[in-house]
Design a protein that fits this description.
Two copies of one chain form a homodimer. Chain A has helices at residues 15-26, 28-35, 65-69, 87-96, 106-122, 140-146, 161-173, 177-186, 195-198, 201-215, 234-242, 306-326, 363-373, 401-412; strands at 6-11, 39-45, 61-62, 76-79, 100-103, 127-128, 152-158, 225-226, 245-255, 262-272, 284-291, 295-302, 348-358, 378-386, 389-396, 399-400, 417-426. By secondary structure, chain A is an alpha/beta fold. Chain A folds into three domains: 6-132 and 306-326, NAD(P)-binding Rossmann-like Domain (Rossmann fold); 140-302, 2-Layer Sandwich (Dihydrodipicolinate Reductase, domain 2); 347-426, Alpha-Beta Plaits (2-Layer Sandwich), CATH 3.30.70.260. In chain A, strand 4, helix 4 (87-96) and strand 5 (100-103) form a beta-alpha-beta unit. Chains A and B meet through helix 2, helix 6, strand 12 and helix 12 of A and helix 2, helix 6, strand 12 and helix 12 of B.
């Protein structure tokens, strides 16, 4: 084993960072054995230097993150501050000053992964970020390395624990969205401002990262269709149950049937109870991967939290340190397929549509005609009448999102259709 | 991209080998892009050279595997012939003649992984074998790399598809063992001689490999306690259901509570229906990993079959080729903890015991006394009487296997105990 330690700079010392620092200290001998050299915490950049940080020597604390990454003797910068700036500038500076980088920053990687990878490659350094997607679950490494000889066709995942907790609660207790969100907040599963989670922004960033890696192309944040789950109702869950389904907020990355393009989207969807993702409870995450040769794989585990995220960060840290010692770099960005990302309108899936209609003869025929005119084939229709009002539940065969939208628009203009109560995609069949 | 191709020698061209060769041809451009250089099939060693092998040029076929691995221009040898010899000699010769090795040979890796790793390291070559455990499921790479900064405490897995198919069939249809085995054979899930699967030899080899990697120590095949699943009855499934459990053949690798030793074992066990492993159906595999920081992770997918196993082989092939190009080697064997493997007697778990007893007063007291004398604490007892005979179902609290065995031996010697109908461990709670 070499004796000169590898020097690690930690940017950010919150829930994850303090856990990373703790494990680096308590498991120093294990890490050294696995890396082939000791690792040393060389500096910790924080915003509030006065906060007591157990186990971290005060002389390592600094508020000057830029000076820390510019030191020149840092082997690995671990970026855990999140957000776009100053994280991007700090990572860039780190590469330029000879360090490799481990990051958990999904927003930044989703927005500018390509740019950062380009700088890393230019400087012959590593950029690893297993922790950016689905916390502790090994996902980026399996996609990038284990499946490197395979052709991934679909990634279907629950990648946001907050929304899964809320939906699971609605499913199991019959609670409404607000009630379930309140419980998630009370238990610390939802932030004071839950927008990033419940509107699907967090999941969309992860979808962009996963799609890029899975399909060896570039998928930007703007390429990801995004629909939150705040409109999901107890009635939707009742409909789902009637179909032998439950509702999950899914991140779905797909290769088109002709192989010439890909799509990435985040939205609530019904999935059959028999699907392995249906039984993912609470704040757990799980990602289903379908490939040509391997078939169906699933990866399951805690998608957030200090210790789980630290586990992913440290796995990357060990890999990057090993690479430093051997003078190599790990597999970097791979975007050689240059597959274009198709808009949502081209996504093909099935739909569950609830309509409030007038309870009189001929309505079903009218509705069915509209579907037919838009080329959307109907699988089943269920009609329930009561006091002159009726509901019509239509489940379609596969159709493009554009056709479905056209259908729904036309339905809204029918006099006999009082309203479109809900439209929900059906996935995982 | 470098233009000189990396040369690959294939040893064995059966179900997996022919699929590897096929994908190397059909996906040549993808593999080249991901590796950074083209890969070329340089030779295929087979036993039956006259068999038609679609897509493989006849001039690549040879029966002289030794000459192939000795050629000196081979970059990677892919060993898919299985068994101990000649596989071991061929791998050794390959290393000595400058090649790295990808293998799917669980028997050989379980028996002599340490020896082969030592030769690989001596020659500064890679030895990768993701396909040796649980087919397509990325497991060795996540354990060795993703969790390299974490401390794994338990690996609990369904790692044999044949036995899972049989047990799933028994569970869902009420079939007996023989009937379910017959169906597995008819469907091609069980081999003509199913011994390696149903007696747990296959799973034990995988447990040895997983335990060694998970705990960074050496676990030999002889260190793994092994019990097959041929004695599992429909009555056992009925008992399991009564407890809210099902029965799976599990490979269990554990770190002792004091951290000073490890155990590895394969046996049928009851697990609660709520456990993610309980819902693994058919011939699928799944492995549950528990670690200090990451918490509970699960990896799920097809554990066997030509294409899935080829996916794992090719993932390794890409990694090894990348390493060749960068002049580095991947993480090799890691046995630095040198943790001893404790015998089965020291394993601590819970037990479900069915006794046939005389239906008369005082029997329960007698039985309870025997448990108490051996330090095995009882959780629940259920007594069912009929026609002078009765059955007593005891579920214990945690106890060592040695204490349990002592208890059972003493129970057998009681006049009032007519027989011990079944003993089943209870896991995953």
């Amino acid at each position: 084993m070499r004796t000169r330690p590898l020097k690690v700079a930690l940017l950010g010392c919150g829930v994850v960072g303090s856990e990373v620092a703790r494990i680096m200290t308590t498991h120093a001998a294990d890490l050294a054995a696995r890396i082939g050299a000791p690792v040393e915490l060389a500096g910790v950049a924080v915003r509030r230097p006065d906060k007591v940080r157990e186990g971290i020597p005060a002389e390592l604390i600094t508020t000057d993150a830029t000076a820390l990454v510019k030191r020149g003797d840092i082997d690995v910068v671990v970026e855990l501050i999140g957000g776009i700036e100053p994280a991007r500038s700090l990572i860039t500076t780190a590469f330029e000053h000879g360090a490799s980088v481990v990051s958990a920053n999904k927003a930044l990687l989703a927005q500018d992964g390509a740019g950062l990878h380009a700088i890393a490659e230019e400087q012959n350094k590593d950029l690893y970020y297993e922790a950016a997607v689905a916390g502790a679950i090994p996902l980026i490494r399996p996609l990038r390395e284990s499946l490197a000889g395979d052709k991934v066709n679909r990634v279907l995942g629950i990648v946001n624990g907050t929304t899964n907790f809320i939906l699971d609660k609605m499913d199991s207790t019959g609670a409404g969205y607000q009630e379930a969100l309140d419980e998630a907040s009370a238990l610390g599963y939802a932030e004071a401002d839950p927008t990033a989670d419940v509107e699907g922004f967090d999941a969309a960033a992860k979808a962009a990262i996963l799609a890029g890696i899975a399909f060896h192309t570039r998928v930007g944040l703007d390429d990801v269709y995004r629909e939150g789950m705040t409109e999901v109702t107890a009635a939707d869950f009742a409909s789902a149950k009637g179909m032998g389904c439950t509702i999950k907020l899914l991140a779905i990355c797909e290769r088109a049937a002709d192989g010439g393009s890909v799509t990435a989207r985040v939205h609530p969807a019904m999935i059959p109870l028999a699907h392995p993702l249906a039984s993912v409870r609470g704040a757990y995450n799980a990602v289903f991967v379908e490939s040509d040769a391997a078939g169906q794989l699933m990866f399951y585990g805690p998608g957030a939290g200090g210790a789980p995220t630290a586990s992913a960060v440290l796995g990357d840290l060990v890999a990057v340190c090993r690479n430093r010692i051997s003078g190599a770099t790990g597999p970097g960005a791979s975007a050689y397929t240059q597959l274009p990302v198709s808009p949502m309108g081209e996504v093909v899936t099935r739909y569950h549509i609830s309509l409030d209609v007038a309870d009189k003869p001929g309505v079903l025929a009218q509705v069915a005609t509209v579907f037919a005119e838009h080329g959307v084939s109907i699988d089943t229709v269920r009609q329930q009448g009561k006091d002159g009002e009726a509901s019509l539940v239509v489940v379609t065969h596969h159709a493009s999102d554009a056709s479905l939208n056209g259908t729904v628009e036309a339905l809204r203009s029918l006099d006999t259709v009082r309203g479109v109560a809900s439209i929900m995609r059906v996935e995982g069949e």
